[in-house]
């Protein structure tokens, strides 16, 4: 990222959503998107004048139809995919209601923490999985 192109790095709000059974919600990225076909933690781009928590509330309603009441910072990851540079601002989401559904037609799954290693994620997510398993 250079000062001449401050918008080049995409600020993404990412939610590690945990239910009462300690399972974590995964969604499959649509094939046509960047890193398509891989599993992700739901989330999306933070808009101007929006906090990460606000972006998560909006994105998790849009993407998986959950009503989030609070989220808490977990970690930040800067990653360069070559074709795209991302700043992932990852939050824990433990306070929510509703039934998770792929509101945009994507596959969604509640997964046991120990099973996370069985899924294919974008490269930047490795550190997130490590952190979840250390909890
Ligand atoms: N949501 C999410 N994005 C991730 C994860 N890991 C990872 O590298 N990313 C990257 C992939 C994308 O380059 C970027 C998310 O951007 P996106 O374009 O899908 O954001 P969005 O959901 O707001 O999509 P859009 O509707 O604005 O197009 O972050 C993850 O676990 N969850
Ligand atoms: Mg998204």
Give the SSE layout.
Layout lengths: L8 E9 L5 E6 L10 E2 L2 E3 L6 H13 L2 E14 L4 E13 L10 E5 L13 H9 L1
The structure holds 8-OXO-2'-deoxyguanosine-5'-triphosphate and magnesium ion.
Low-pLDDT windows of residues: none
Count of individual helical segments: 2
Spatial sequence of strands, sheet with the most strands: 4-1-6-5
Residues in β-strands, percent: 35-45%
User: Quick one: CATH superfamily?
Assistant: Nucleoside Triphosphate Pyrophosphohydrolase
**CATH-defined architecture:** Alpha-Beta Complex
Class from secondary-structure proportions: alpha+beta
**Attached small molecules:** 8-OXO-2'-deoxyguanosine-5'-triphosphate, magnesium ion
Q: Using the alpha-carbon principal axes, give the shape.
A: globular
Taking Cα atoms only, what radius of gyration do you get, to the nearest Å?
14 Å
Domain Nudix hydrolase: 9-135
Catalytic activity: 8-oxo-dGTP + H2O = 8-oxo-dGMP + diphosphate + H(+); 8-oxo-GTP + H2O = 8-oxo-GMP + diphosphate + H(+)
InterPro entries: Mutator_MutT, MutT-like, MutY_C, Nudix_hydrolase, NUDIX_hydrolase-like_dom_sf, NUDIX_hydrolase_CS, NUDIX_hydrolase_dom
Family: Belongs to the Nudix hydrolase family.
Question: Would you mind describing this structure in some detail?
Answer:
With about 140 residues, the chain is α+β, with helices and mostly antiparallel strands. The protein has one domain (about 10-125): Nucleoside Triphosphate Pyrophosphohydrolase, CATH 3.90.79.10. It has 2 helices and 7 strands; from the N terminus they run E-E-E-E-H-E-E-E-H. It has a 4-stranded mixed sheet, with helices on one face. About 30% of the residues are buried. The structure holds 8-OXO-2'-deoxyguanosine-5'-triphosphate and magnesium ion. 8-OXO-2'-deoxyguanosine-5'-triphosphate binds near residues 34, 45 and 88.
